């Protein structure tokens, strides 16, 4: 019987999470015709046109075994926006829990005689604490979908184990007073300055991410968007069932690289411009869906680009309004209002400034020879998939940790901004602005480092091999599906 085991996907409405999860769903139903999938879609309030537009389009792509269903809207409460975008999203997800319960009850209990078997839930980071217990109500397993790398997963599980099972005290104020941390999931000691706020900030860890980590431990399996050749050290530690450093943990399935092949509709104007550029001559600057630049930093980037002499494609986005916690970057209405006077005229033959691009399509273009990136996990995988070296410019979340690994562990990237903080420098506001001289030097290194380019080319081959028949990711995906089918 086709599609006789159904999975319910419930993913927080971040564009990077949703696109990854949709690609994972397509891989699963393509791999085994006994699987069907229903996505329960959550829309944001009118604060992110890009993600809402994408979510609105998904039901139109439903197929026989892949369905997309909008959940009833939830009206946000004013206090949800008091802390951060992440806290807002946690409240939003939590308040959808009754809607998820209602759907599952109707689908698999009330209509049980005509419905497939409920094979379980697939949820991402911010949904684990809300959904694992709900899944237990229906006697169904939960599979946690971790949209970052295995090293960050390992650190998160390690911190939860230390706090709950070993030290039994707050690790952010006690365990992490050291200048560096040794962990089984990372090859070299990690400076604590590169660890994300989710692990280092007491309130963020104790009120949110500790609960997410506990949800991972309760899950039947953890699906990770990575592959063995990229994170062999981390995957070895996570796959060691005899290891006690993480406590008892579910199986970990590395099924990546899952690449965002949707939303690759693009600007014909950008493609035509790239077509005119020499091979590997263009440096591409893009800081992700949540990254933005303003004021003095925009001028320093522009100056650095001019001084580097490189051809460039620069994605420049306007930051949220000051004092607005839950807002998202948007396009500038007029670049001349924010760029240095005459910059667009001086660089019209060698550069292009845009507001949004289909990132994978750009990275795939023969003209692109380097990628200045915030080091979000999706962007890293897309760049390696296309064989484009990265210049690291981490901004938030686990991006400094990702950049540290890329530069210091793997040799796959060059630094644009310093990854490891220098404690001798005074912490002044101006120190947070990356200067033109540093940007110029970083771009020149990025575009000329032959050793990094060679390693990236080798990793590109490993990316594609992982997803082929017999590849590590394809085998891991098959193991995951067998686990779902067996129930």
Indicate the CATH topology of the largest domain.
Rossmann fold
CATH-level-2 architecture of the largest domain? 3-Layer(aba) Sandwich
Q: What is the global morphology?
A: globular
Total domains, how many? 2
Give the class-level CATH name of the largest domain. Answer: Alpha Beta
What's the rounded overall pLDDT mean? 89
Percent range for β-strand residues: 5-15%
The count of β-strands is: 17
Class from helix and strand fractions: alpha/beta
Helices, by number, come to 18
Question: What distance lies between the first and last C-alpha atoms, to the nearest angstrom?
Answer: 16 Å
Strand-helix topology:
Elements: E1 5-10, H1 15-31, E2 35-41, H2 49-57, E3 66-70, H3 85-94, H4 97-110, E4 117-124, H5 128-137, E5 142-146, H6 150-166, E6 180-181, E7 190-191, H7 197-200, H8 202-218, E8 221-224, H9 232-239, E9 251-254, H10 268-275, E10 282-286, H11 295-308, E11 311-315, E12 317-318, E13 330-331, H12 343-346, E14 351-354, H13 359-363, E15 368-373, H14 377-386, E16 390-392, H15 399-409, E17 413-415, H16 436-448, H17 450-466, H18 472-486
Parallel strand pairs: 1-2, 1-4, 2-3, 4-5, 5-8, 8-9, 10-11, 10-15, 11-14, 15-16, 16-17
Antiparallel strand pairs: 6-7, 12-13
Helix pairs in contact: 6-8, 11-16, 14-17
Keywords: Glycosyltransferase, Isoprene biosynthesis, Transferase
GO molecular function: UDP-glucosyltransferase activity
Pfam families: UDPGT
